[in-house]
Amino acid sequence: MGDRSAAGGGSNRPAWLQQYDLLGKIGEGTYGLVFLARSKLQSNLDKSIAIKKFKQSKDGDGVSPTAIREIMLLREISNENVVKLVNVHINHADMSLYLAFDYAEHDLYEVIRHHRERVNQSINQYTVKSLLWQLLNGLNYLHSNWIIHRDLKPSNILVMGDGDEQGVVKIADFGLARVYQAPLKPLSENGVVVTIWYRAPELLLGAKHYTSAVDMWAVGCIFAELLTLRPLFQGIEVKANPNPFQLDQLDKIFKVLGHPTQEKWPTLVHLPHWQSDQQHIQGHKYDSPGLHSYVNLPPKSVGYSLLSKMLEYDPRKRITASQALEHEYFRTDPLPGRNSLVSCQPGEKTVNYPARPVDVTTDFEGTTNVQPHPMSSGHAMANNASAASLVSTRPVARSQLPLVGMPRLPNLHGGISGYNIPPHGPGMAGLNPTNIPIQRGGGQAHSQQQLRRKDSGSGIQNSGYTLQQKSRRF
Amino acid sequence: MADFQSSTQRKNWIFSSDQLLEKRTAANQRAVLTLQKYGATRLEVDLDGSVKYPFPLLDSMENGERHSLPKHLNCSEEQLMRVFYEHKIQEVCLAFRFPHKIQGSAILYFKRFYLQWSVMEHHPKHIMLTCIYASCKVEENHVSAEELGKGIQQDHQVILNNEMLVLQSMKFDLIVYAPYRSIEGFVDDMEDSFQVGNDQLHKFQELKEMAKLEVDKSMLTDAPLLFPPGQLTLAALRRSNDAHGGVIDFQRYLEIILSREQSPHTISELIVSLNAIDALVSKLKIPSMKEMRHIDRKLTNCSDPSSHDESKKREKRSKHKSKKTHGKSTK
């Protein structure tokens, strides 16, 4: 309480900052910045931590709703394949929130790019299958807890680096995730624009409500991208407000999958854009579905079978996460494993993925210093030019104010299953309940620093912890 | 989330009645100590959620200005005060036509907050508004602080001033299971279980409507901090069923759901819980304005004896944030 350090001199750093060695900035988005830090606490000594700083909301309306939503969801969930929130800090100086996560060295965006640009070779089958299985496992957990992620894309799928969780997938970035006890309105109604390449066709056609099937479409797109190293449907985004019709994105989908028909997708005719834009959408006819040739899979293979079920037009027929986990693809060799990056089978070559670049010129408040901080370790400097060019294009997530209650789906939630002897929860710690204790014991000793190397070409955009969509032309 | 079992509500916010008593006594005693030390109990809250104690009493004591300390609230007066403002939350939410869920979450936030603080430290009127505001944010029914403040003629700055403190005090455990939603579920289930014909449906509609009012009552008691929401719902439905002369055989319905869930608990255990909830509801007394006046005067005296200085400080503090309302604060 009242632990505000003396103001003046502009250096009233919050006390909790002392728990960390700040190494630098690793990502940026409209919500704020992501830093890499190392824990100085005895219990977690030298453990790498990613700290996501949320800017305070600009419109003078208190704490950022995106931050609140991300924290409250992460507080409720716990799964090996979902990123772990270890602490929440408040910077008293500017009322911003800092979320501390276990640090993940890699993400699928960088893994795919490394293969495309450096290795010049596709990702081995074992790795693709293990990554996909774990992604589905995390998603199945979320969906069975009635959470839709809504913004799955390669840069939000993290992969742990060296340590006892090496090669484990972590789904990240829950700023847009929602609990769907009640029907969810389209994000566009909240003035939010997300990546269109992974957006499901029903949303592109103006469906009014989200279902968990939108996440499965994105998984299908990511699966294809892991196979080919290129985004499957790389449409050109129409930038307009509110909720512009993304014709080019749909066109890209139709070209590969063929035109949707009412026989295959009965509710198609009810979708707003399908009805209103007959000339453009219904006019185009693509009849040679070429998905298998596009992803280079034999049409009879189990991999193709699973992929095509994820990219099913009708969201009601699209495979669910739990069904996908049971698919034959995961029962045939090579079987998926926990360490997706290192196969236990002999003979498989292990790829060394580069460490995330760190921009050491930005401090915790997000101010860029002309002179870099003296570093406490031998960290490679990131490419400054690219750090400076980080410009976000995504509008701030904000909700509007519909005062009308949404219809509720009746269920027995919290019902009789809640009949129980009340558990005697731990009391609040003293008068300052802010610090959510770090729950995981036994910090693994990360020795990433030795592996860290200069990745001069990469810069730091899209470094996994970002939300922004930079132009990615290949 | 669908799973109350793994929720933070079950893990962190369901207590025994002894624990509730302990926490509230501790908060009350801390405020009393503050009063003795500083001559006032009100804590100042900064925008960032940090809390400051009033100026030490020493100076004024030395000057001989103060001879006796103002009287402080006891635990039962604090309790009355909380019930009064929890009821106010319901009234405000009704006036704004917010869905039940918002009202339910706001009341639970308020209850959780005052497990850690005394009403003498943070005025419940302010905390009430901030809880409604936070609940709207969480339930995606975003209303700006300004709009909320305007609707009830209160300075919206106090809402924002306390927001971080409220979120912090709840450890950011913001997903709340209120007993409203499951009313629908249980009633649908009753209709199925007892194979109700169409001619009977209106009775179940009445059962449902009254159960909502019964849940409203139980939200004003300690029950939401003691029992899982499903039990609050069942207790409300049972009271509603009794009032309607027994639309269904409730005991049998309880047996049906217990056997279906393969619950490790017995029907008698469940009935003990429902009875305990009923007892809390029957003891509920919403204090009238008149009763409140006495307690409120006491609160003003002990929390803010030098309210004159206070308002000056507050003005200074909110200067950088609220340009619009500056100078027309309703405080």
Reconstruct the topology from this structure:
The complex is a heterodimer of chains A (474) and B (331).
Chain A: E1 20-29, E2 32-39, E3 48-54, H1 65-76, E4 85-91, E5 96-102, E6 106-107, H2 108-119, H3 125-144, E7 147-148, E8 157-159, E9 169-171, E10 178-179, H4 201-204, H5 213-228, H6 247-257, H7 272-276, H8 278-282, H9 291-295, H10 302-310, H11 321-325, H12 384-388, H13 448-451
Antiparallel strand pairs in A: 1-2, 2-3, 3-5, 4-5, 6-8, 7-10, 8-9
Helix pairs in contact in A: 3-5, 5-10
Chain B: H1 8-12, H2 17-38, E1 44-45, E2 51-52, H3 58-62, H4 75-95, H5 100-113, H6 124-138, H7 145-151, H8 156-169, H9 181-193, H10 201-219, H11 223-226, H12 229-243, H13 250-261, H14 267-283, H15 289-303, H16 307-317
Antiparallel strand pairs in B: 1-2
Describe the protein's architecture and organization.
Chain A folds into two domains: 16-104 and 357-414, Phosphorylase Kinase, domain 1 (2-Layer Sandwich), CATH 3.30.200; 106-331, Transferase(Phosphotransferase), domain 1, CATH 1.10.510. Chain A is globular, with a radius of gyration of 23 Å. Chain A has 13 helices and ten strands. In chain A, strand 2 (32-39) and strand 3 (48-54) form a beta hairpin. Chain A is an alpha+beta fold and 474 residues long. The longest helix of chain A is centred in the N-terminal third of the chain and has 20 residues, at 125-144. Chain B has two domains: 4-176 and 288-320, Cyclin-like (Cyclin A, domain 1, Orthogonal Bundle), CATH 1.10.472; 181-283, Cyclin-like (Cyclin A, domain 1, Orthogonal Bundle). Chain B contains 16 helices and two strands. Chain B has helices at residues 8-12, 17-38, 58-62, 75-95, 100-113, 124-138, 145-151, 156-169, 181-193, 201-219, 223-226, 229-243, 250-261, 267-283, 289-303, 307-317; strands at 44-45, 51-52. In chain B, strand 1 (44-45) and strand 2 (51-52) form a beta hairpin. At the A-B interface, helix 1, strand 4 and strand 10 of A face helix 1, helix 2, strand 2, helix 6 and helix 7 of B. Chain A: Residues 435-474 are annotated as: Disordered. Chain A: One of its GO terms (cellular component) is nucleus. Chain A: Keywords: ATP-binding, Kinase, Nucleotide-binding, Phosphoprotein, Serine/threonine-protein kinase, Transferase.
